[in-house]
Structure formats: C-alpha cells, structure tokens
Amino acid sequence: MEVFANEYPDEAWVVRAALGSAFVALAIGGLMGLIQTLHRTGFYDSLISNADYYTVLTLHGVAMVLLFTIFFLVGFFQWAITDSLGRKSEDIRITKLWYGMMVLGSAMSAVTILGGFVDSGSLSGVEADVLYTFYAPLEAHPLYYMGLAVFIIGTWIAGFDWFRSWWAWKKENPDERMPLRTFMVLTTMLMWYLASLGVAISVVFFLIPWSLGIFDSVNSLLTRTLFWFFGHPVVYFWLMPVYMMWYVIMPKLAGGRLFSDPLARIVFVLFLVLSVPTGIHHQYVDPGIAEGFKFLAMTNTMFLLLPSLLTAFTVVASIEHGARQRGGEGYFGWLTALPWGKPAFTGMTLAGLMFAAAGFSGMINAGMSINYLVHNTLWVVGHFHMTVGTAVALSIMAATYWFLPKITGREIFSRRLGLAQVLLWFIGMVLMGNAMHRAGLAGVPRRTADPTYDQVIYDGAYGAIGELRFQIALGGVLLSLSLVLFFAHLVLSSFDIGERAAATPDSIPAPLSGPEQAPKVLDNIRLWTSIAVVLILITYILPLASIVTDGGGWLGDSYGVIVAEYVLPAVSSTIDIFVGVVA
Amino acid sequence: MSSETETTEDGIVREIGHDEFDPVGTLALILIYFVIIGGLWAFMYFVEFLGNGPTVV
Amino acid sequence: MEIHRYEKLWFGLSLLLIVGFIGTITYGAVGAGVQMVSDDGGTVEPSFSTINENEKFAQQEDNQAVHVEGNEYEVAVIAQRFSFQPGTGSPIQVPEDSRVTFYVTSPDVIHGFSVVGTNANTMVIPGQIAEITVEFDELDSDEPKEYGVVCHEFCGAGHEEMAGQIQVVPEDQWEGDA
Ligand code: HEM
Ligand SMILES: [Cu+2]
Ligand SMILES: [Cu+2]
Are A259 and B5 a contacting pair at CB < 8 A? Predict the structure, then answer.
C-alpha cells in the first residue's frame, strides 16, 4: 500500500488545490475577524469606517462559512471517496471542472464584495454589502448572486462525480457493502441537493432577475424563507466532514477502533432525513409565518439533536476503547492514557469538547419561545463561533496535521507547534465565545459596527459590559495568533526543513461492530431521500403557500401574478423531476 | 471476538475485542453531561427567559 | 443489529431530553402564555403611502400609545433606514400597568425591533406587519422607566445608528387617553 499522494496523484492534486483554496479563504476571513473584533468592541476602530465594517463582515461571513468550509469539504470528500472505494476518479477532467467552477464562482462573488471598499471610480456600483445572508431587498451586484450560483453548481457536479465513482464500483463489487466513508459522502450530498435547491431557486428565479432590473421587487419574506430552507441544513454540510473525521480518524489516532459502524450509518441517515425541514427555526420571530409552522420546525429540530447526541456517545466510546488498549484504567483514569501529544488528536478533542458546550446554546436557540431572549444578539454569534468556528474549523485545522502527510507525502514540521496552535485557538474561543454569549443575554445586538447607543443601557451594569468587551477583543486576538501559527506551520511543512520522515501509509482500523451488523435497509438511500422529501413537503408547502398568497405574490407586488405563470410551473416541475429521479 | 488490528500506532499494550469492551468511562462522562444540560436548560428557561420580562403574550 | 446496552440507555435519555425540551416550550405557550410572532398582523404593501393608509398606522398620530379599552393600548411603528417612527425622535410613551400591542412594519428593507433587556423582540419585514403584545408592570417609583430599542438586523450603512426608546410613564403623569 502506498501513500495517497503517490497512489492517486491526480486526485491528490485536486484535494491539495481544494484545501489550498479553503485555507486562502480562512486567512482572509481570519483577518476580517480580527478587524471586526477590535472595531465593534471599540479597541481599534480607526482602521475602517463604520460603513466599511459591513463590507468586512460580508467578506468574513462568505469567506468563512461558504468558501473555507465548503472547499475543505470537497477536498476531504474527494479523498474519502477515492480512498474508500480504492479507485481513481472516473474522469479526472470532470473532477477538475467542478473545482474550477467553484473557484470561478468564488472569484465572481469576491470581486463584488471587495468592490464595497472602493467608494468611487470604475468599480463604483459593484458592491455586495449584503452579508452572507443577502436578505432582499438589500441588493448586491448581479455578479454576487451569479458567482454564488456557479459555486453551488460546482458542488452539485462534485456530488455527481462521487456518485459516478460509487455506481462504477458497485458494478464491479455487486455483493459488497457500501464502505462507510462512501456512505457518509453520498448521504451528505443527497442532503445538500435537497437543501441547496432552496437557495438556488431564490437566486436564479428571483434575485438575479431582480438585480438585473427585470423585476421591480421581490417578496422579501419569500426569499428569506428560501434562504433558511438552505441556511440550516448548510450547517450540517459544514459538520458532516467533521463528523466523518471524528468517526473515522479520531478512534484511529486514539489507538482504538470505531465503536459501531451501524450507528454511524444511522446517524447520517437521520441527518439526511431531518436536516432540511428545520430552517424555519431561524424565523421564530418573523412575522408572516403562523405559530403552528414554527412549532413543527421546532419539533423536527429537537429530534435532530438525536444524531448528534448519539455521535457524542459513539465517538467518545471509540476513543475510550483506544485509551484502554493503551493501558488506560478506571472511570476517568483512561483519559490520561490518550495520545495528548498529537496535535491532530488534541485539537479534535478540544473541538469536540467545545461542541458539547455549544450544543447546549444550540438547544436554547432551538427552543422556539426562548428565541425572544437571544434572537440576533451576540449570543448567536458566540454559538456559531463555537460550532462552525471551532467544532468545525478547529477540527479541520487539527485534522490537517494528520491529513497533510497523506496528500503531500511529507510529515508535518513540528508536533509541538501544532499543539500550541490548537490550544491557543481553544483558549481564544473560550474567552470570545463565552463573552459573546453573556453579552447577548444582556441584549447586545449582532451585525453592528458599534453596539453603543445613546438610548440604550445594557443590564444597568457598565462594568460588566466593559469586561465582556475586553474578553471579546482579547479572545479574537488570540484566535488570530493561532491562525498565524497555523499558516506558518503549513508553510514550514511545505519546505524540506529539519529531519522529517517521509509519510508512512496507514489505514483505518476495522470497527468493533462492523457493517455486517448493519441492516441492509440502511444503505437504501433512495428510501431515505424519499422520506426526506416528504418531510420537507409537509413542513414547507403550507408556509410557502401562505407567504406567496398573503404576502403579495411571488414578487411582493402585482407583477408577481404574471411571473407566477412561469415561475410556479418551473418550480413545481423541478420538484417533480427531483422526486422522480430519486424515488 | 478478539480480533487482529492492522494499526501500526504505537502505545497499544493490549487488544480489546468487541465483547470485552464496556464503555463505562463514556457512560460516566455522558451522564454528567446529561445532568449539566438538564439543569442549565431549566435555569435558562425559567430564570433567564421567563424572568426577563416583559415577554410577548 | 446489536446495540450496546449503555448506548440503548443513552438513546433513551436523549429522547427524554428532547421530549422534555418540547414539553417545556409547550408549557411556555400554554401555561406561561408566551405567544410567537405570527401572521396575525397581516400584510401591507411596503411603501409609505400604503402604510400610512393602514388602519393601525393611520391612528398613530404622535409618540403616544393609542388607547383601545381598559388597560389595552396600541402603538404602530414604522422602522425605516435608520430610525423608528415613533421611538427615535422622542420615546414611545406607554402608561404603566398596561397591555400594549406593537405593530411594526418597514417600507424599505428588513429591520429588527428589539426592546433591550426584555423578551420583546421581532423581525420587521417589508410587506409584513409584525404584531407583538407586551405587558408593562406597575412602576416601583414615580419616575418613568426607559427601555432601549435597537434594530438588530443589518439594514445598510448607518444601521449602527438605528435605535429608539420606550418610556413607561407613571399613571398620574400619563397625558394620553386613558
Ligand atoms: C480569528 C478568528 C475569528 C474572529 C476574531 C472572529 C470574529 C467575529 C466577530 C467579532 C463577528 C461578529 C460581527 C458582528 O456581528 O458584528 C463575527 C461574525 C461571524 N463569524 Fe467570525 N471570527 C473568527 C473566526 C470565524 C470562523 C473560523 C468562522 C467559521 C468558520 C466564523 C464565522 C462567522 C460568521 C458566519 C459570522 C456572522 C457574519 C454575519 O453576521 O453576517 N468566524 N466573527
Ligand atoms: Cu439552524
Ligand atoms: Cu438596522
């Protein structure tokens, strides 16, 4: 057996390129994060104007949660498919095509966002100060939406590419179980097809024509609802590669074996089925959506806790298995027998620990009425920096220390440096995340260049707010330092410095309870997709219908009637085709 | 079902198979988590939230 | 498929947690009477002229809550780039010990309407009228009590300026209809 990079050089090229793009986005996003954290806390607000703050924030959001996470995902999934099926890409040109499209789309959107920094001259009018949620009628340059569409179509082709590998493999191995990593990739991509349909419809049928001036207006609540149709499941798109790392890489690093392959499959099936019909939980305090629909979305959301809670058990048990094989004893004593010297292991464990804490604030967010307390406050920002910003981002950085040798063929530069980096991120996020949660409870809003107002006193306590502000700034600075260490490490690792061994190939140990234990029906992804579609229809058809009929049509005004004549059939036939293909 | 592992990782002093392994440590940790979550939930809902009036009625 | 007994136990506890959460929220709605913003406020075309013709907004003449009956009042607020009308220029005045329904809408982009330090918090979406009812208690002293109101959704350059105030006025200083 050979190292991945040598066995599959073409695929490894795409994986490296995708990871490279992800890290460029992370670097840009990180710089913006530092600017924000200092600006809105008032520690250093003379670098940019308040107006430019929103350009910075748009760039931060898009770079972090669309580009960084998704570029990493496609790279990692390409590795997972190739490695677990043991076959080259069916047609490497297609593989390069989707990567190229994603880069092109990113560049298109990035140009319009950067245009926001230019006040006049040839670029004036090219801007996209609309944040990553682009709620209409805030309007961006058409290129912003088009770039997004191209990017998403790129991911769709990637999914198709991976399905092709699986179909080809299946033909040659008709009696074998679908490998676990392939199973994870395919269920995630099916979830993604369903989810991204919402934002694709919003962008292609409404926002692009509207920003080009073909329509005068859009129905604001409709495009917002379509965004969140996509906006919640997208968090699982960030999370699924990380779950794959936790299920597949962590047990191995700990010296153990995955506790249960069947349970891992059940978890991914639950995500496929339940991820999409939950998006309305971002709209708990939106007018125009009846309370019953919100309650239904909450019920789905709460049940979606199940796969994550099950994951917590399975992953910790797999690690414990490793610790005991390494001689660990007792109820808690085994924790000391874990390989804490490995940055990949320690980083992912800290990420998981933070996810356990963030899971709690997520449960609060999910609790319909309690949303009044936290909606659009810094609490929410604290929550997602501990989830996507740490559980995902830190796991990705940590896994890179394990992953890099596989795709470059050379060991990383220094374990110690890696350890320092992941630890610094964790400490920084404890400070920033905790302070953001507390500030949010005091009512400090998110998405603002300056949360101080003449008319507003937070919690009556100046002192406490000042201290929280300080922690947010300090935490942000530590996080940025951690990023600097990370990038320095990547650079150092790419040169031949010091005495470093060539990477040794290694494999994923077999699970304790293997796939032969998993009922066959689990691999019936058609069945699960159909159930997902039915659940989506149940949760979304009625609210969408009432938004369109009560809220002034498809476009929020009388023009809507005309457009409905061709938009409506297009939408419904798209759904028909999708159901037809899958079922 | 004590079985062979293909792992080359160092530090492993014994092989523990499927039937010899009870994740008691995991159970202990996760029960602690359960208690914390339950308590915090009650605190957040009944004290932080309902105590933060006026509330929409 | 065999599932370890600990894992079965955890599965059961997880379900208990989920059902407990849903139960708490249901209690909040049925027992504590917390209502979600819904489609009750109705819709209005997002332009000044149409909004001003709307019954609720037409009756809002100044910054004072409009008396309906008993201790019930109504306030109609237009959230626009970058102010609340009323609220920003001078505080919205409501009497103590009252039940006030806010109607909030926007003629331009999406805004937020969040009464800082309380659970009164809603999105303001063009085309929709957000309706929230809030109870203000009796005051502890004869000083008016102020609440800050902020827009918590990005609405354009200037968003960080968008704030206002609600003033809860003691019974004997209340100048509006009672
Ligand atoms: C150097 C590390 C980071 C710092 C200092 C930082 C800081 C911040 C701050 C202060 C905000 C709040 C802005 C506001 O609401 O006014 C913010 C927003 C945000 N951050 Fe970060 N962040 C960092 C890393 C990350 C990472 C790794 C991710 C995700 C992978 C992330 C995702 C986001 C998102 C999605 C938003 C919301 C954007 C919006 O409201 O439109 N951040 N960040
Ligand atoms: Cu969500
Ligand atoms: Cu605003």
Answer: no
Q: Which domain holds residue C6?
A: 1-34
Statement to judge: residues C56 and C30 lie in one domain = no
Q: Which CATH architecture has domain A173-582?
A: Up-down Bundle (1.20)
Q: Is residue C13 part of a domain?
A: yes
Residue pair C149/C163 in contact by the 8 Å Cβ criterion: yes
Cis check for the bond before C102: say yes or no (omega within 30 of 0): no
Say if residue A45's pLDDT is above 70: yes
The answer to whether residue A86 neighbours chain C at the CB level (below 8 Å) is no
Is C106 within a domain? yes
A4 pLDDT band (50/70/90 cuts)? confident
Note whether B29 contacts A363, CB cutoff 8 Å: no
Neighbours of chain C (3+ CB pairs under 8 A): A, B
Q: How far apart are the first and last CA of chain C?
A: 70
Give me ligand 1 centre to Cα A33, in Å: 6
Judge: A323–B15 Cβ closer than 8 Å, yes or no: no
**Residue environment code for A242-280, b if the CB has 16+ CB neighbours within 10 A, otherwise e:** bbbbbbbbbbbbbbbbbbbbbbbbbbbbbbbbbbbbbbb
Nearest 5°: CA angle at A207, between A201 and A213? 140
Is the residue at C41 inside a domain? no
* Cβ atoms of A170 and A253 closer than 8 Å: no
Give phi and psi for C121, each to the nearest 5. -160, 120
Confidence (pLDDT) at A567: 55
pLDDT averaged over chain A?
A: 90
Of the CA atoms within 13 Å of residue A459, those in its CB half-sphere come to 15
Q: Nearest by CB to B41, which of A324, A356, A363? A: A363
End-to-end CA gap in chain B: 60
pTM surpassing 0.90? Answer: yes
Instruction: Please check whether residues C15 and C68 belong to one and the same domain.
Output: no
Whether residues C82 and C29 share a domain: the answer is: no
Question: What residue spans define the domains of chain A?
Answer: 173-582
